[in-house]
Amino acid sequence: MTAPARLPEGFVGMLASLGLSDVAEAIATTAPEVSVRFNPRKPAPALSTPGHPVAWWAERGLTLDSRPRFTLDPALHQGRYYVQEAGSMFAARVVSSLVGRLGSASRLCLLDACAAPGGKTTAAIDALPDGSIVVANEFVPLRAAVLRENLVKWGYPYTIVTRGDTEPYSRLRDTFDIILADVPCSGEGMMRKDADAVAQWSESLVAECASLQRSILSNLWPSLRPGGFLVYSTCTLNRTENEEQLLAFMAETGAESVALDVNPSWGVTPALDAPGLHACRFLPGRTPTEGLFVSVLRKPGAEAGTPPVESAKGRRAEKRPAEASAVEPWIAAPEEMVIRKIDDRLSALPASMTRLLARIERLTDVICAGVQLATVKGRDLIPAHPLAMSTLLRPDAFPRVELSRDEALDYLRGNALTLPASTPRGYVLPTFDGFPLGFAKHLGNRSNNLYPSPWRVKITS
Cα separation of 410 and 417, whole Å? Predict the structure, then answer.
């Protein structure tokens, strides 16, 4: 076929050789889909744009009829939903099925190794048994900051965010029940929505990405428990980074390919010319999403049946900060938390993850763990924004002040608030639609806006 004008000829030829010429045509001529996934631990908002359920995650995924201005929706900043490709929501379905294969409703331990911006991490959180530990890592510092922001907004306390290469995780042997490896790739599946993916494509880029992916897989495999599962995914379409990558890895390690339950009506394409390998290809034009490849490998050995979270017996002792008694009334179930102080910051750590955190801190850079509760400033304890976003926050811990939509956007922009005269002095929770936006300090005649500066909304209309 003749190459569509905006796509590289080598890329179009590669798809044609795989029998995917229709996919190239769809990338060149059709518009991308827009979808969102709702947070089950927070109240779902009423969106301004209608839509229909995502077929493989109908419980909480919605494909919208058009793209609204998400940045101007306070509910997005409250962590009540996440804007995500419909195909990427398949991660939640996969993790949910793997929890069933592990044969236990007990707490598990999951690593998302290439996690930014956090879509698959939050999807995995929602599919795991409550109280499971989730470790999310990102190599690129700016992307790691975005990952932390999105996980803070999602509000799940049992998280650890790290920044760095995956190599240190090779020394956490037999630790994780499930590992997500959404590896860096050539991005062919994003060409319909990302001009940079078109501009940067080359055969040498494909080879470079494949080499990096193999290194990441080699780093992660030792940290997976025998009987545990590694979920490999890319947003690219070639066989080099997908089928060929996994077939070679399986031959080297003895990893077992795991079949996934797929409804034929979804239009998902299986692995291409790869006997013995089970995979799902989400292809533009065939499925209502951008390009995605997903496959699951099982590590040979006994099932990972012993929960990785430790009991109270033998748990690492944490020095109790003097301020602990002042912040414990702010959180639900304080008896299950360890209050930790680093420099001027107080955080609540689920007691079940302190030992794993100590191991990780010896190996790599931890930028977030548990829930930051407050900053100590002299005799004052300034409540931290992550507490406002967290499900750990006690509903009655602070006075609440409901804001209109316009007032909520003013708050998210960092502007000063004019609160009702009846508002008590001190720290209060501005809310929108009954749910927290963050903190403010009411001084009587004025209020200080405590919304984090880096996260403030820059768009005015």
Answer: 8
